[in-house]
């Protein structure tokens, strides 16, 4: 069981932007993607404020988002870092296991990673993440440097869509097709 303190999980700007993007995708008929809530068990309440002061995660979550994009099942997690690298420690074993099982069922798994220092966001496909993950498990590098993120998979805004990640997915899948 994980620990939750009300100051810790206030929702990231990245997740807020993804939620807005996903709402627009749904309205435009482009995708159906939803945030998966993590169930918590309240332990201590503040009756005066009507808020939870202390709670525990009831079970390990899988990933942040699940959905379907034009016939393609997708699952992904949103990660933010203030550093010039994404620490592998930010990705949990159960998330890797879930994404790998999802891929085996012909779904598409990935991370959406936001680098706060440069205000840039990228799609990181599972197969690339898994290479870094496996290396880290065998005493290799414990992070993915910003410089290693594929600029072709950078996520940009488009009109009223804050994080138009469908373009990055399309670019990734097109490149994958060409490799066959």
Automatic annotation (TrEMBL):
Mg(2+) binds at residues 62, 64, 77, 95. Its EC number is 3.1.21.10. Binds 1 Mg(2+) ion per subunit. InterPro entries: Resolv_RecU, Restrct_endonuc-II-like, tRNA_endonuc-like_dom_sf. Its cofactor is Mg(2+). CDD domains: RecU-like (cd22354). The record marks 79 as: Transition state stabilizer. It is found in: Cytoplasm. It catalyses: Endonucleolytic cleavage at a junction such as a reciprocal single-stranded crossover between two homologous DNA duplexes (Holliday junction). Keywords: Cytoplasm, DNA damage, DNA recombination, DNA repair, Endonuclease, Hydrolase, Magnesium, Metal-binding, Nuclease. Transmembrane segments: none annotated. Belongs to the RecU family. HAMAP family: RecU. Endonuclease that resolves Holliday junction intermediates in genetic recombination. Cleaves mobile four-strand junctions by introducing symmetrical nicks in paired strands. Promotes annealing of linear ssDNA with homologous dsDNA. Required for DNA repair, homologous recombination and chromosome segregation. This is Holliday junction resolvase RecU. It comes from Acetobacterium malicum. The gene is recU.
